Backbone:
């Protein structure tokens, strides 16, 4: 049963306990940053920060409103990074998480380019750099009654860990119960083929910096192109051999007519 | 051989080789700095822009500009266009050097270059990059084998020479197959980015566009490099050969143009080319200056018969292709919000050094080897260009 997390942004108070818990559980160092005129910090996900709370200021009936959205790896159902990774260092587990094996990685960063959510990060400062990203705490919950560290730390219940299908059901129920409170959109249910992280919001997701993505998995077109490779290989090889044979034959015919001199030339080639 | 002797006095370019050597050595120092301090210290790359100049120029342009190798080999050995035999050696050498540079560039760009061999043992056959890696590896070996007769000939090793000659046709066919897959797979790689690549460029037929544009730039590159090297090394070259190559280009560019525009029409996205997005300008430069203009120019005999005009038209084709590869892998590819990218000077230094190294090897090859292959009947006589020997080793030293 694939797991997932439901984020109800209307319940988030921006305390960032999830951010701290993530750093603690994963042993990530602090980042030195500068004041950018916002409580949102650090500015980006990085090799030292797998999750952060984004603070979005929006205007609601002339009043300033803060919306807090936790961002991290979405653990896609059909992940672009997994399809992209040439050495299979990224894998999708049946129970949900997209995991990374640095024993295979060569540091090409195709996963970073392919991810439609812009999530995987790189240890740029390191002489021996690896890809870093949220693991969905796969070293915490499978086989135990634990939850991911961020979910366990959340004081308001904005984060809920569970089976993805059940969470989608629950999200639908919450929208149905409070139709005025939420926009009728579960972000992550359908985006790029679905993600393990699911979001509910009071305002349209595009206003919160969420990318506006189609429902088709981004892996569909590359998979189509890759499936054309073996037939293309055979076709080109056959075509070239055929053209070569025809040309040779034509030359033989014409040299047979022209006489010995040119026939000798053929042999030296 | 008299042509060689006259050129011997004229050639040399001590100033040029001095600059080349300086650029090549600065690049080595930069690469050393990179291995000690990491990528972050000498690039402007970031999580928001994980691929930069090296991928756009060294990988994307480098592979496409090496297309002269398989297009010419195909024309000569498969399609039987014997008159191009005279330029085949330099075309294969350029392709081989191009691919070697791609590998060297990857050894700088990869975060874990010491694990590059993982690509051989850990396979993800669904990854377009896996296809790229396999093709780079095998095609570089094929190119080395295709070029090896030139070296064996110089060394007078008749046994390996005969062995390679006996598998020449299978090698050429393998080269064409691998190039077809490889050129197109660089387009397949970008298919993974439908949400970040500008829709004016993103299309499921990207692999085909990559292949056709590479086939078109192959002859253009051969015109470019043989024009330059015939000036630098004094090879005599009949205008007929280059004009013939120039004549083929409009047809291939025509196929490319029909695919590129036809795809937009078919997808009902032609309006994207007229949107107010500033990137649209790049697309128009690509199409008008890099495709339509050279098509018009090269269909005129007066352009094809004039060396400088032919050279200029070839430059347009090459420039258009370079712009296209920069667009799809960088300029028209959205980065993450809040990041900027402009290559650090050390990134430029590495790319420039790789080109300088390639040029040095071209000079060395032209002095040591018989690059200008004679017509097949002359070839049987087999003389290893005596005038080249005293010049050995000079280009890098001066």
Residues:
């Amino acid at each position: 049963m694939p797991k997932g997390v439901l984020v109800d942004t209307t319940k988030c108070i921006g305390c960032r306990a999830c951010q701290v818990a993530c750093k603690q559980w994963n042993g990530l160092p602090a980042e030195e940053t500068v004041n950018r005129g916002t409580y949102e910090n650090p500015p980006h996900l990085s090799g030292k920060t797998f999750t952060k709370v984004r603070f979005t200021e929006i205007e609601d009936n002339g009043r300033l409103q803060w919306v807090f959205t936790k961002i991290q790896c979405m653990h896609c159902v059909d992940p672009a990074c997994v399809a992209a990774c040439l050495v299979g260092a990224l894998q999708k587990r049946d129970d949900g998480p997209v995991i990374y094996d640095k024993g295979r990685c060569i540091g090409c960063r195709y996963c970073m380019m392919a991810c439609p959510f812009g999530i995987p990060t790189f240890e740029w400062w390191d002489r021996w750099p690896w890809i870093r990203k949220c693991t969905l705490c796969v070293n915490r919950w499978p086989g135990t009654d634990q939850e991911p560290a961020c979910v366990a730390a959340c004081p308001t219940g904005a984060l809920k860990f569970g089976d993805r299908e059940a969470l989608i059901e629950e999200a639908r129920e919450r929208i149905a119960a409070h139709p005025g409170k939420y926009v009728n959109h579960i972000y992550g249910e359908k985006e790029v083929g679905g993600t393990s992280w699911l979001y509910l919001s009071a305002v349209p997701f595009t206003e919160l910096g969420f990318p506006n993505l189609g429902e088709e998995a981004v892996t569909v077109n590359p998979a189509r192109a890759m499936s054309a490779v073996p037939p293309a290989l055979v076709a080109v090889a056959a075509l070239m051999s055929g053209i070569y044979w025809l040309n040779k034959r034509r030359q033989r015919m014409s040299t047979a007519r022209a006489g010995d001199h040119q026939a000798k030339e053929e042999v030296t080639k | 051989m008299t042509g060689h002797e006259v050129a011997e006095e004229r050639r040399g370019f001590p100033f040029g080789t001095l600059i080349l050597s300086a650029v090549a050595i600065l690049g080595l120092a930069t690469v050393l700095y990179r291995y000690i301090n990491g990528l972050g210290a000498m690039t402007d790359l970031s999580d928001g822009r994980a691929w930069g100049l090296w991928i756009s120029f060294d990988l994307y342009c480098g592979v496409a500009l090496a297309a002269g190798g398989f297009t010419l080999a195909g024309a000569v050995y498969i399609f039987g266009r014997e008159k191009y035999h005279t330029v085949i050696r330099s075309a294969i050498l350029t392709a081989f050097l191009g691919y070697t540079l791609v590998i060297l560039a990857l050894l700088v760009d990869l975060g874990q270059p010491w694990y590059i061999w993982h690509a051989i043992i850990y396979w993800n056959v669904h990854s377009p990059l896996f296809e790229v890696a396999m093709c780079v590896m095998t095609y570089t070996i094929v190119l080395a084998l295709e070029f090896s007769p030139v070296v064996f000939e110089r060394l007078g090793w008749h046994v390996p020479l005969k062995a390679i000659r006996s598998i020449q046709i299978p090698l050429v066919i393998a080269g064409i197959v691998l190039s077809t897959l490889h050129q197109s797979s660089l387009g397949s790689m970008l298919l993974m980015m439908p949400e970040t690549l500008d829709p004016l460029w993103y299309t499921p037929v990207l692999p085909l566009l990559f292949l056709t544009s590479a086939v078109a730039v192959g002859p253009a590159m051969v015109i470019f490099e043989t024009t330059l090297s015939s000036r630098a090394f004094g090879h005599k070259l009949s205008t007929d050969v280059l004009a013939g190559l120039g004549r083929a280009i409009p047809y291939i560019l025509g196929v490319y143009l029909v695919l590129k525009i036809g795809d937009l029409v078919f997808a009902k996205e032609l309006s994207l080319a007229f949107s107010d997005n500033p990137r649209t300008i790049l697309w128009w430069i690509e199409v008008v200056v890099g495709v339509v203009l050279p098509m018009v120019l090269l269909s005129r005999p007066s352009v094809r018969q004039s060396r400088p005009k032919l050279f200029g038209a070839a430059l347009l084709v090459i420039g258009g292709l370079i712009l296209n590869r920069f667009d799809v892998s960088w300029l028209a590819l959205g980065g993450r919000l809040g990041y900027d990218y402009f290559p650090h000077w050390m990134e430029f230094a590495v790319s420039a050094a790789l080109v300088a190294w390639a040029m040095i090897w071209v000079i060395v090859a032209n002095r040591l080897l018989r690059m200008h292959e004679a017509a097949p009947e002359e070839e049987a006589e087999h003389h290893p260009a005596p005038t080249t020997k005293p010049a050995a080793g000079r280009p890098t030293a001066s």
